[in-house]
Amino acid sequence: MFRTQPSGSAGSEPPxxxxxGPVPSRRLGRSLGVDLVPFKTCTxxxxxxxxxxxxxxxxxxxxxxxxxxxxxxxxxxLAASHPDYITVAGSGEPTLEINLGEVLEGxxxxxxxxxxxxxxxxxxxxxxxxxxxxxxxxxxxxxxAGDEDLFLRINRPVEGLSLSKVLHGLEGxxxxxxGPIWLEVMVxxxxxxxxxxxxxxxxxxxxxxxxxxxxxxxxxxxxxxxARAVDRDRLLGLRNRFVPHAxxxxxxxxxxxxxxxxxxxxxxxxxxxxxxxxxxxxxIAVGLDIRCKTVRIVLGRLQDDKTVHCFRKEGRLYYxxxxxxxxxRWE
Length: 331
Prior knowledge:
Layout: E1 18-25, E2 29-35, E3 41-42, E4 56-57, H1 67-80, E5 85-89, H2 100-108, E6 115-118, H3 127-133, E7 138-140, H4 148-154, H5 163-176, E8 182-186, H6 195-208, E9 212-216, H7 232-238, E10 247-248, H8 263-276, H9 281-288, H10 292-304, E11 308-313, E12 316-321
Parallel strand pairs: 2-5, 3-4, 5-6, 6-7, 8-9, 9-10
Antiparallel strand pairs: 1-2, 11-12
Helix pairs in contact: 1-2, 2-3, 8-10
């Protein structure tokens, strides 16, 4: 049994839970996302985070969600879609949810769809977090630094966290968890792509003994202008610095498209995705299985409604929801 707190223990704020997608994931295909904590509630304030600066940086685990409502919402979504994974992730650090174990148990009881836990790994030194996380089918922690100085500058952790503590937790979780661990390493140009920096990260990663290592880079807009992407050729050249050899997470390729006759429904789905993170037209089309032509029509109308805006980042055109804007119904 996992220790739980009543719903009201999180205070008077509304629950932070949202189910979204399926959304395109370079690691998991079409992923049905489950967000357990309020927006930007995290143990880190990473310089590359696509959601911007952390507004609530904390180590305190609390009951942010109502477990029954989470399970019911996912059950309803699964009746209408067939994602490759159910992913507990979202707009904050999910292991801060004190009922994480109960949520994972409930999600696994809904279907045969595997459940992934996407975490920064910062709380895995806590045995209760380890026990809860071990209920997932796949655990996907991150490691962005191999020394304390870089850890402080890249991840900007809450007071009380150190890289040595995080690594100790990841090593301990490996000893407990028999399932696959996919370790993500975010490589930043001019910060972590230098040889000595990468070698330190590779040495730290070897201690965790992951089943695979995936090199990523901030191709989507992040929260700090200093977080620059490394080009694909450079990433490919870094793969053999890791044991096991790392793979580079590739951009999406177009998948078969279907017609979407209901623009109202498509608009609501697209807007829900863009409230989670900026996307290109192709990413929207792939993740939501909607024709690119339909996506363009929907985005044009959402821009007319001033609920969506677009911007360029490193030569790519992204669309994002306008904070606080709500669209009207279309004639």
